[in-house]
Amino acid sequence: MRIPIPILLAGPVSPTRPRPCATYGDRMDTTTDTLVIGGGQAGLSVSYHLRRLGVEHLVLDGEDRIGDAWRRRWDSLELFTPRRYDGLDGMRMPGDPAGSPTKDEMAAYLEDYAARFDLPVRTGHRVTALRRDGDAFTAETASGTFRAQQVVVAMSNYQRPRIPGFAADLDAGIRQLHAYDYRNPAQLLPGRVLIVGAGNSGAEIANDIAAGHEVIVAGPSTGEIPGSYSGFFNQHVLVRVVNGLVFPHLMSVDTPMGRRARPRIMTHGVPLIRVKSRELARLGVVRAARVTGAEDGRPVVDGAPVDVANVIWCSGYDPGLDWIDLPILDDRGEPRHERGVVPEVPGLYFVGLHFLTSMASAMVHGVGRDASRIAALAAARSRQPVAA
């Protein structure tokens, strides 16, 4: 039997740092007031506001390094919004305010953000189970157990790549990648590429590979934002209106328009923003309506089997939140909540979900509003007297 040995800390414990731990062999148990699960832009935003409010907390992230979720995206990826909209609360994104940052710039920015505000992030701690244990929550990781009075799950609901079952029926010689795993055209075999999914990811990847491959993009249209993405009107007028008014205010749970649109937005792609149908046609990309299955090892596109060398699945993601061992997930695996608050489980919150309160909720420029509100609720609850 191993006797837990407390780790002695030099000096007083900061009000935003976790309390001393106990070690059990190679495992470590930690207690804190508020646990934030996820160290991306949502988790860092929550941590920033909790620190400002003096709430003891800890941020757990499953990646080895802050920003790795961005670094892992395909090489040519750039954010749609200009840098002036890509900073989190308290720190602007460096560089040309009118230019679009690359995915590696975004990753570096998040790392610098955590360092600048000394946010208590622990990387390499992937939570495998979250449970309620009496009046507290218990989060399990490979390296130890973390206990907290309240928990903020600061993650998107796009955690697990979705690939249809008939993908297993395709010929073994066809190279298959999900958009999650796609990096650059060098991964592909010579020959035709079928991209399944006609949203922004499908269009951007088609643009990336069209110079060296015949490309088919299959899937229902998601619509597109009018005008040229790089044009003066879009860059200086439309982007300001959409990011400053439409996404955070008009398309929100506070307006009849937003409430009507939310169910469709939750299940369909966002309109094409940068690479539009006209650009795809100019590149020679062929559009198809849908892929329905496999026949003789080939994908069936619009009712007929098609010869392809590669398939890239831009078919979306499942929530991937089934590690939350609490009765709060609906039949689609989405958490039930009211503006990020879970009424059935006091002390449990969400930030970063798609359309948590508005279209801007999962976007870099919009996550801070939800993070600030949830952090304030957590701070108020942490200061309530504990019942005898």
Q: Can you characterise this structure?
A:
It is a single chain. With 388 residues, the chain is an alpha/beta fold. It folds into two domains: 5-159 and 319-382, FAD/NAD(P)-binding domain; 161-224 and 271-317, 3-Layer(bba) Sandwich (FAD/NAD(P)-binding domain). The chain has eight helices and 19 strands. It has helices at residues 41-52, 68-71, 103-116, 200-209, 232-250, 256-267, 277-282, 367-382; strands at 5-6, 22-24, 27-37, 57-60, 121-122, 129-133, 136-141, 144-154, 160-161, 175-178, 193-196, 215-218, 286-288, 291-295, 298-301, 304-305, 310-313, 317-318, 348-351. The strands form four sheets. Strands 1, 2, 3, 4, 5, 6, 7, 8 and 19 form a nine-stranded mixed beta sheet that branches. It has a five-stranded parallel beta sheet with strand order 10-17-11-12-13, with helices on one face. It has a three-stranded antiparallel beta sheet with strand order 14-15-16, with no helix packed on it. Strand 11 (193-196), helix 4 (200-209) and strand 12 form a beta-alpha-beta unit. The two termini are 33 Å apart.
Which descriptors apply to this entry?
FAD/NAD(P)-binding domain, alpha/beta, five-stranded parallel β-sheet, 388 residues, disordered N terminus, single chain, 2 domains, nine-stranded mixed β-sheet
What's the average pLDDT?
89
Radius of gyration: 23 Å
Number of strands: 19
CATH class of the largest domain: Alpha Beta
Percent in helix: 10-25%
Total individual domains: 2
Main sheet? 9 strands, mixed
What is the CATH topology classification name of the largest domain? FAD/NAD(P)-binding domain
Spell out the helices and strands N to C: EEEHEHHEEEEEEEHEHHHEEEEEEEH
- Number of helices in the DSSP assignment: 8
